[in-house]
Design brief:
Order of helices and strands: EHEHEHEHHHEHEHEEEEHEH
Distance between the termini: 45 Å
Bound molecules: NADPH dihydro-nicotinamide-adenine-dinucleotide phosphate
Strand content: 15-25%
Structural class: alpha/beta
Length: 283
C-alpha cells in the first residue's frame, strides 16, 4: 500500500519550529525580515509571492514586498538590491524568478549579498554547497531531503535518480543526495533509455515540468517518488510530473501535487530567513 508523504503536515511542523525561534529572537529585540522582489505581473509569480507573504505572517517574519514595473532597467533593479543589501533590518532577499527577458538573471542574483541570499542561488552559496560547507541550502532540494527523512528511509547507499538538471532543483538536489551517501544519477532531455534508469531508482525525483510524465511502468515497486513538478492544466487545475493515479499503485511512498514539495519549499525559505537573521546577529 503506497504511503502519501504529506508535505502540508511536515511543513506545518517546520513552520511551527521557525515560529517559536522567531518569537525567541523577538524577545531579544531582533525582528526577522524577508524582502521579496518581483518584476512584472506574471500570474504564477504573483501566486508564489502572495503565498510567501502569507507564510511569513504566519511565522512572525516581517515581509517586505517590492512589486516593480516590468520595464525596470537592470541598473534600477541592482540599485534596489543594493539598498536591501545595506538595510540592517532586512535579513533575507529573494528575487522572484523568472525575470523579464531584458534583465540578466545571473547578474541580478549575483548582486545579492551572499549572507542574505536565502534562496542559495548566489554563485558563492552554490560553490559552498558543492564543498559541503554551506550556510543556506536551496529551498526545494532541502525541503525534499526533509520529506524523504520523514519516510524513515535512509538515503545512504540508495539508487537515487533525478530527472531534470536545472540550477534551482536538479543540480543542487543531486549534491544533497550525494552528501547523504546516495548513489546519484541525473537524467535530462538527452538521456537515453530513461525508463530503464528510472525503474531502478529506490528514490526517484521528478523535476521536469511536464504533466504526468512519469508513468507507473517507470517506477520501481516500493520506491520513494518525489514529484517536484507544478503544471497548470487547461481546466485550471494543478498536476505534477508524475501520473499520480498510476504511480500510487507501484510506489512505496509518493508526494502529492499540490500538498507535497510546494509547501516544504516555502517552509524552508522561512527556515533560511531565520538562519540568516541568526547569523547576522551572531545568535
Ligand atoms: P527546468 O525547465 O529548468 O528544467 C527541466 C528539466 O527537465 C531540464 O533539465 C530538462 O532537460 C529536463 N527534461 C525536459 N524534458 C525531458 C524529457 N523528455 N526527459 C528527461 N528530462 C527532460 O525546470 P525546473 O527545474 O525549474 O522545474 C521543474 C518543475 O518543477 C516545474 O514544473 C516547476 O514548476 C517545478 N518547480 C516546483 C517547485 C516547488 O516548490 N514545488 C520549485 C521549483 C520548480 P534539459 O536540461 O536537457 O533541457
Amino acid at each position: 500500500m503506497t504511503k502519501i508523504i504529506d508535505g502540508k503536515l511536515i511543513s506545518a511542523k517546520l513552520k511551527e519550529e521557525v515560529k517559536i525561534e522567531v518569537e525567541n529572537l523577538r524577545e531579544k529585540g531582533i525582528s526577522v525580515c524577508l524582502a521579496v522582489v518581483m518584476v512584472g505581473d506574471d500570474t504564477a509569480s504573483k501566486v508564489y509571492v502572495r503565498n510567501k507573504k502569507r507564510v511569513c505572517e504566519a511565522v512572525g517574519i516581517v515581509s517586505k514586498e517590492f512589486i516593480l514595473n516590468a520595464n525596470i532597467s537592470q541598473q534600477e533593479l541592482i540599485d534596489l538590491i543594493d539598498l536591501l543589501n545595506k538595510d540592517r533590518k532586512v535579513n533575507g532577499i529573494l528575487v522572484q524568478l523568472p525575470l523579464p527577458k531584458h534583465l540578466n538573471e545571473k547578474d541580478i542574483i549575483s548582486s545579492i549579498v551572499p549572507s542574505k541570499d536565502v534562496d542559495a542561488f548566489h554563485p558563492i552559496n552554490v560553490g559552498k554547497i558543492m564543498l559541503g560547507e554551506y550556510d543556506f541550502l536551496p529551498c526545494t532540494p532541502a525541503g525534499i531531503i526533509d520529506l524523504i527523512y520523514e519516510t524513515g528511509i535512509s538515503i545512504e547507499g540508495k539508487n537515487c535518480v533525478i530527472i531534470g538538471r536545472s540550477n534551482i532543483v536538479g543540480k543542487p538536489m543531486s549534491m544533497l543526495l550525494l552528501q547523504k551517501n546516495g548513489t546519484v544519477t541525473i537524467c535530462h532531455s538527452k538521456t537515453q533509455n530513461l525508463k530503464e534508469i528510472t525503474s531502478k531508482a529506490d528514490i526517484l525525483v521528478a523535476a521536469v515540468g511536464c504533466p504526468n510524465f512519469i508513468k507507473d511502468d517507470m517506477i520501481k515497486p516500493g520506491a520513494v517518488v518525489i514529484d517536484v513538478g507544478i503544471n497548470r492544466l487547461k481546466d485550471g487545475s494543478l498536476c505534477g510530473d508524475v501520473d499520480f493515479e498510476g504511480a500510487k499503485n507501484v510506489a512505496g511512498y509518493i508526494t502529492p501535487v499540490p500538498g507535497g514539495v510546494g509547501p516544504m519549499t516555502i517552509a524552508t525559505l522561512m527556515k533560511n530567513t531565520l538562519l540568516a537573521a541568526k547569523l547576522q546577529n551572531h545568535n
